[in-house]
Amino acid sequence: MVWTYNSNKKFKSMKSFRSNFKLKSITRLTLALVLLSMLTILSSCGDDDNGDDPRESRDIVDVAIDNGYTRLAEALTEANLVSTLKGTGPFTVFAPTNAAFEAVGITSENNFGGLTTEGLADLLTYHVIEGDVTSDELTTGEVASLEGSSLLIDATSLTVNEVSIIEPFDVEASNGTIHTIQSVLSVPQDIVELAQSQSSLSTLVEALTKFPDLVTALSDEDQTYTVFAPTNDAFTTLLGVIGQTSLDDIPESVIRRILEYHVVLGSAVLSSQLMDGDEVDPILADMGDIISVGVGTSVTVDNATVTTADVVATNGIVHIIDGVLIPDLETSIVNTVVEPAYFSVDFEILTSAVVKADLLTTLINRDAEYTLFAPTDDAFEAIDITSVDNLTADDLELILLYHVLDTEVKEADLPESGSAVATLNGDFYLSINSTDVFINGLSQVTITDIDQDNGVVHVIDRTLTPAAGDVVDIAVAASQATEGAEFGQLVAALTAVSENTTTDLVTALKGDGPFTVFAPTDAAFQALYNAVGDQDVDLDTDIDDLVAAAGLETIAIVLQYHVLSVDGFDGGVFSSDIPNVLNGNNSVTLTPLAGGTWDLNADLTITPTDAVLMLELDDASIIGTDILATNGVIHTIDQVILP
Q: Average pLDDT, stretch 354-360?
C-alpha cells in the first residue's frame, strides 16, 4: 500500500487526523529499517571483516579440499607443497581430476605412482603458473610453470598441453584460481631426470651417478635413446645372485658394462614397435652383445619383463623392467669359480690377472671342477703386486695355476695338516688347527666353501708363489742379491765344506727332503765372530777366520745342526705348523741332522740343550719365516746355533 498526501483532503475529526498521523509514522519507521538492512547487506558484500565470502577466506588448498580434488590435496601434502600454495601467490592451478590422477597410478595418500617426493613436487608444480588467470584471460602460447618448464596454452580450444580444461573451471580462491583438466600433464624430463623422479629406480640412479659421463650423455637433448630401466628389486635380485650386498661391492668397470647393456643409442623405440624375435643393439653391441625381444602377453627383453612401457622422456623412451640385463661375458661368469672375484671390488687384481693370463675361458668351463684359492687385492699387495701391468701373461699364469686344484675340495675334505696338495703348478702345504687353515705357513684361508656350479672357492689373505728352487738355490740367490743379501756367510760355509770335505752338504740339501732350514743371517755370523773376539771379518767373501778357528769338520756339524727333517710334514715345518709340533707345550726338543738336540720354544726361539762351547750368545730367534723351497722351507734366525 502506498500512502500519499492529498492537500485537498479534509479530516473529519481529530481522531481521524491522529489515526492518519500514526499510520504515516509507522510507515516511515518501516522504510528506515528496510533501508538500514539493505545498507548493512551491501556493506558486508564489500567487507571481509565477517569472513563470509569463500573467495576471501579460502586459499587454493582449502578450495581444492572443499571441491573434492582429493588426489591433488593428498599429493600436495606428500610433496610438501601445502605451505607454498597457501602462500600469497597469486597462482593459477590446472587441477587434474581424481580419475586423472588414478589413471597414472596416484590412487591414494599411500600410493603416488612410484614417484619420489621430489618427482611428485615437480609433477605438481608443473600444473601451476604464477598469476590469477581466469579462463577468459588465458592467451594462446607458452607460459612458464612453477616447475620451470613451459606449458602450451590454446585459449581458443581451451587446452593446456592439448589436455582439455573442463568444468568446473574458474574456481575462485583467496590466492588464485583453479581450472579442472581431464588428464595429468607430463613433465618434460630427460632420461636421467625421469629416472630420478621414480622411487623404484633409485638404485639405477645410484649406479648412473658413479659415471658422470653417462649422466651427461643420457641428459643430452640432442641425442635419442631407448633405455631399459631395471627396478630396485631387480638390482636386489642381481646382488643376491652374485653374492654381493650393494653396488659399492662391485667393480665400477663391471657396473658400467651392465649399465651400457641397457641403453640403445639413436632411436626411441615404443613397445608397439617391438616384434617377437627382434634383436636390439645396445651400446655394447660392438662386443657382440644383443638384447633379444619377446612379444606375447607381455614384452620381454632377454629374461626380463617390461612392467611399465613407453615412459616418454624429452630425449627418448624408457621401458621399466623387472630384471637386470646381463651382457654375455658376465652371464658366462655367473655361477662359476670366477664369479666371487669378478663381481667384487676386493679381487680386482686377481680378475685382471686371470684375463691377462688368458685363463678366463678355462676357469668358467662349466664341465670342469675346480677348487680356487682366491687371493684378495690385499693379498697381492702383501707380495708387492699392486698391478698386473709389469707382469707377463706367462708370469701370471704360473702364479694363478698355483692357486687352482683340478677337483672340488671343500674345507671338510682338505687332507690332514702337514699334507702336500697338488695344484695345477706344483704342490702347496697345509697347516690346520682347530680354528685356522694355512697354506705354506703365511697364507691364511679366511673364507671357505663358496659353492659354484663348476667348483668351490676359498678366500686367502696372502698370494701364493711357487717355489723358486731348492733350499740351496734360494740361499745362493739371496746371497747374490744386490739388496738384502743375508746368506753370504752361510753359502760360503756350505760351499767350503762341500768342496773340501767328504760331507757334501750342497748335494745333500738339494735332495728330496723335505728339509726345514733355520738359516743364520750374515749378521748372525758377525755376532758369532764378535763372541770369539774376531770383529774384522769381511762378511761378503771371507770365512777363513771361521775355518781357522773351528775347522771344516766342525763347521759341517754346525751347519747340519740348523737342519731338521721331521716326519709328518710333507713340505717341512712351517711357522703355522709350530703349534702342532708344540702340542700345547711351551717348548719341544727336536733332533737336527747333526744329531744332538735343541729346544724349539713357543716364543719362536731356539735353545741348544747340549752346547759345549761356552760363548755369550743369546738364544736364536726366528726373525723371518716360511721361505718356500721345492724340497722344504727356510726360516731366518739371528744367531748361529752351536752344538
A: 97
